[in-house]
Structures are given as C-alpha cells and as structure tokens.
Structures
1.
Amino acid sequence: MLNTKTFNIQNLNIFLISILPLGLIIGTLISNTIIFLICIFFIYDLYTKKNFFYLNQKNFYFLLIINIYLLLNSYFISENDESLIKSFGFLRFIILTYAISYYFLESGNKILKIWTLFFIIVSFDILFEYVSGKNILGFQSQYPARIASFSGDEMKIGGYYFGFILLSLFFLKQYRKNFFLISLILFFIISLLIGERSNFIKIFIMYFLFLMFFFNISFLKKFLAIIVLLTITISIIINIPGLKSKFFNHIIDQELIEKIQINQKKVDYMKVISNNRHLSHYYVATEIFKENIFFGSGFKSFRIESPKKKYQKNGIYGASTHPHQFHFEILSELGLVGYILIFSNLIYILFKR
C-alpha cells in the first residue's frame, strides 16, 4: 500500500485504517494516535480534493447535534474539566466514521482482508491462552475464567472480538467460502471462551440476526442453526466450571432461589441487589436518573456521582467508573434528552435505506 510510486495521503490513510485493529489491541495511546492521524489526514485529503460530501448527508448534522449536546451538557451539568475534554473528543469519532466509509469505497476489500488477518491471529491467541494459561506474548489474565490475550491488563479483548467478528465473517463468506462455515462456529465458541458475559450475549444476538436476515438458507436450516448454537453454548457453559460460575452463579442469587423453592413470600430484594455487583451499579444509575430525568447528571459523571452517600442506601454500594450497561449509562449521565438523540440517530441509520 505504501510503495513510493503511489504514495499519497489517501494511501497513508488506507494503511492507518488497516492497522487500526492492531492499535486497539496494543493500547489506548496507540489507538487514539492512529485515530487522530486518520482524522487529520482525512480532512486534509478532502480539502485538497474539494470534496465535502458529508455536508450533503443528514446524518452528519444529526451527529453534530449530539456532539453539541454533549458539550453543553458537560459545561452546564457536569461542570468538570474531564467531561468537557471528552465531549470535544467525541468529534474524532464522527470524523473517523466518515473516513472509514469514504476509504472503504476505494479499498474496502484490502482493509477487510487485513482486519480479518488480525482477527484470526487474535482468535488463535485466545485459544492458546485458554489452553496454556498465557497468551503467545506471555500475558496472563488476573481474573478467573476470563481471557486477556494481547490486551493484557486492559481486559478488553471481548469488546474487540465483538467489534470485528461480523466483519471478518463477511469477508470470509465473500472471498474464502471454504473456511466460512468452520469459522462461523469456531469464532462463536471462542467468543464464549473469552469469558465476558456482556460481549458474548451481544455476539449471540448478532449471530441470531445474521442467520435470520442475512444468511441465504431455508427457514428450517436457520432454525436448526440457532438450535445448534444454543446447544453448543449450554454444553460449554455447563462443562466448564469457571464459565458456569460466571454465567449462572454470579447472576442468580442463591438465597432468592432457595426462598422461592420453599415458597417463602417475603424476599429481601435490596439484599439481592447488594450481593450482585452489576445490579448494584444498575440500581445507583437508576437513582441518579430519577434525580436528573431530562439532562442526566452530566457526561462522564457516573464516577463522580455514584460514590455519593445519598446513592449508597439499603446496604447497596454501586460506585464505579460506569454502570456497566449502555442504556443505564446514557440515561444516568445524559438523561432522556441525550437518550432520545442517540437512539433517534441509530433508528435513522437503520431505516434510511
């Protein structure tokens, strides 16, 4: 891509977009640097070509409105410097979105090929760590039944897998059909072995939608495929103690189950919530939202609001940097206004075609 005869800003940006997954794995500093360079070179590339196509797209203005709301929310509601800085930083994701879509029209197959190669390497590394206890670079997870892979202490390999699994499957389906069906099942199993509940559930839903709406087979075969995926999921979870504990014991309160089994009418739901880390976060996020229904407590303010004593009641302590659930995070920090803006944009993107 970067040979001297054809080197230009466009080729440089295609190269940077191609190695973006590598930056996401290495760390935040590298990935943000790559994203920053993509944005700068993209703006320069469009300026030299006098090509301002994004100005004719309604979605661009929708995203700008969301960015302006984040700025106003940070300035008037959050009242902390970190929030304001991060709301300014949101602009880079708008530019990045248009940069990727723009260069995909030119070199989408090349980019997808490299992304898929990175994804396959990460998949192999996850299996290697699952078997040996350490990844090929010697990184080791500090959490039981959870894979770190190349992300090391950041423990974000599940998010990476969720972000690139469908893109990699799309490439394999189009250009490597002999490996597609094997990859479809293998990638699914690996996503479960990573040990991240939230990302696996999202991947399962994505698989379901992919099979139901984008896979050109009969309905009976689609139904059987879903049954096979469910069977694989349940079988692996039941037979691996670490996953069984993560997917069942950490979610279902045993005391509650026992009371239901012996038909006791009174159940201390506050105790159930307090004994579950994620439920505690959800509870605090709900309490914050109740006090700030329309505009929330401020962008990136959950880490500031959640430790306050007024939210630590009924024996519940749900302080954290974020509530570990996308909807609760938006509602508690940005309120109904922010929630409606963000999801109106998503609905518009889904149905505009």
2.
Amino acid sequence: MALEDIINDRVKKLENFQGAGVDPYPAESKRTHFINELVSDFEILSQSQKKVIAVGRIIGLRNQGNIFFADLKDGLAGLTTSSSAKIQFVTKKDDIKDFELYRDNLDIGDFIQVTGTLFITQKGEKSIQTAELKLLAKSLRPLPDQWSGLSDIETKLRKRYLDLLSNEDVKEIFKKKAIFWDTIRNFLKKQKFLEVEMPVFESIPGGADAEPFMTHHNALDQDFYLRISLELPLKKLLVGGYEKVFEIGRIFRNEGIDAEHLQDYTQMEFYAAYQDYKWLMKFVEKMYKLVVKNTTGSLITEWQERQIDWGKKWPKIDYVKIFKEKAGIDLKKATEEQLTAKARELGLNLESGMGKGRIIDLIYKKTVRPTLIQPCFLVNPPVEVEPLAKKLTKDDGRVARIQIVAAGTELGKGFSELNDPIDQRHRFMEQMRLREQGDKEAQRLDEDFLEAISYGMPPAAGFGLSERLFAILMNKPVRETVIFPLMRPKKSE
C-alpha cells in the first residue's frame, strides 16, 4: 500500500474513534507500573490479581476475530536500564466495551493505556488480560520495520526519532553519552571544581584557531560571534578569585564536516589555579580511565578493527623528537621556507597567510598523528603552535602543553597557562599579523582579556576535551553520536 493510502486509512480510523466519542489525543493518562517492573515482578503481581495500568506504544498487533493480541513497549530510558521492556496484552470481546472499535482501528505505532491483570498464556507468554483500553495518541504514519529498521544513513540522522524506535543499539549510544558527561562532571565536582556557564555570544572570539559564526543582536544593534572556545572567560574567573572552575557547553566553529568535526558540539574545559601541566597529566589520565570504564564497561575499546588499551600507563612523547623522526625535520632549526617546502612535498593545501605554527600543525597531522594509536601524552610543541601556553623556559622555543592522542587523533589538550600579560600581548600581535596576511583562523587581539590578566592571574593548568572522545569510544563518526546533527537542507523533489 502506498504511503498516502496508509495515512488516509489511519485518518479514517482516527475519525472512527472521534465518531464513537473517544478523544484520540487525551491529556490525561495513568500508570501504576513501568513494563520492566511488570516483567521483573510478574510472579508477585500475577498472584495478587490486582489490576495494573501500563502505557506505551503498540509495536505488534495480531487480530483473531473475537480476540486480539498486541505487544506494548514503553520508553523508560534510565541510565541503569539496558533497554525498554515490552509485554503482550490480550483483549477479548466479552472483557471490554467498544471491543470492535479498538480491534478494527488500532495500528502499530499507536499509544495506548491498558488496564488489567497479569497472566501467562497457553504458549507461556507473560501478558496482561485487558479489562479496559484507552487510546492516548493515534499514529498517522507507519513506523519503520522493527527488524530491518532504517537502512539509509542520511534518513537515520534526519529522522533520528525513527532510528531510535527501531534500533535499541542506537538508543544505548545516547544513554552511554549521558554517562560519559555525568562521569566527567561528577569527577570534577568531587575534586572541588565549580561548574559555571560562560557567554555564548562574544565580541571577540578567542581561545582557539578557528573561524567563527556571526550573528546580530537586535536589542543591542550589534554583531556578535558565537564562541569557538570556553577558555578566555574561564581564565578571567581565576583573576576573580576562583581556583577551580569548569564548564560543559556548546561551542561553534565554522569549519568543514568530516568524521571528527562538527560545526556545533559539546566541549568541556577546566582550569585549576596553582597547578601546572605535569600535575595535569596525572589528573586527566585518572579521569579518562574512569570515563572510559564507566561509559563502555571496559578499559579496552575497539576502533577501526583495532584494540585501544586505555588501562596501561600512558607514555610521554616529545613533539619535537617525534616530528623529526616521522617528518624528517628538526623543528629547533627549521625555517618557514623549509616547512613550506615539506608541506608541498606532502601535497598539503597551504592557504594564504599561514604562519609557521599552522604549517607545522599540517605536517604533524599528515606524518605524526596517524601513527599514534595507543593513548599517549604528546608534549612540548613549538610556541608557534600554541599561543596561549607558557614557555618551558624564557629562552626555550617550546611550550608546556600536552595533547592526549589515541586512535590517530587528538582527544584532549591542556597546558600550563600563560599568565604574563606582556608576553600574551606579543603573541596576540603575532596572531594578528597572520590574520592580516590572510589566515582567517589566527587568533584575535583581545584587549579585555589582556586587561583582566594584567590585574594578576595565578599560575594555572587548563584542559579541554570534546565529544570527539565519546565518538572514538563508540567507534563511530562523530555525527552518528549526536542525536540531531546539523544536516544540509534536503532538496525538494
């Protein structure tokens, strides 16, 4: 039957309910038990012969004339519940009024309230003997086949609600994602971090090398940027006297889409006064291992048919040393011209205005990063790569930064924060020079931030991670681990 015919048939059934005085979309419903409770406590409840009330969606329907059978499923999705439960309800002609109305006009997908007693059928199936039915919501479109589900990935992402209905594995992903963020939040709170919320609109976007989105504030008649990082406002709180702060929030970067990147995504950043990047390594390794264990149930996960062992002690890998080993260039001596020649040799796309740091990063991502499969700390890159981190020493060209790298990608970054306002100004000015040369992702000069840290910011360690880590743990592209990812508008046919 064509979709239009199915919808028309269901609309007629809706009208049949209305004609019989039944509201197909009532506001009120009652429930005495979740279905998983009926199943787990079946013996006690069935022996008591007390009436129970269950609600949910019909996912199976079998009509045998004077009796019909239906499978009912509710949507209990607690973090400790592995999956929603289902139960059969059996409705006989002599047991309810309006039997024919419900028998002839119910469809798979309808929401229903069932009142009755528990019993076991001759086939041994736990069931509800129906004493009363109440329609809660009439479904006007057919659901995906519960066995084959949705096959087209674009349809899955555009109509995630249908994917969730037909695929318990997908439903489990988002339960795990809730556990992922809860574990991080609870870990930080136990360590006396204060959770805060920073502005999404910024006059000057900062804290990362990324192109921002822009919007207009009508009441203020002013353009603002959507934040590309959580960093700079959080560090202002260190100036204000807080010692441990964090935020879990959305950030927005106007960059390309691939398996690891989205334009809007959730990121966590924390800042701890009187700590440095050496402390940071011990702290985040402990946090990551707890997060991986709680989210997946194991410290060994699968990624592209390879095992990632998060449980071992993570090694420290020197950025400059491995860069020389994999790319053949000594960053202590390399000129921008040599780096440019190497990038072109590798077939990398060099955009106008790229400075030394961006070129180094491009070469690193091509030659070094893909080789780092097991979790490790990549430490001490050149200062050109990280304009917000403290130098190892005054005359050293490297900074006190760590990156957590595994599965061939970055899964977190932190460093000893630069709190010298004069040095920070010099670095911002160099970034502005690169912007003037055409680098759209170079950082902007932020006078407000410079003024804030000129009042004095304590030495501190900062760290950030995004939901890319969760995607790697699930062994999926990041947009498949987002419930409703942003999609290109569908072309009208």
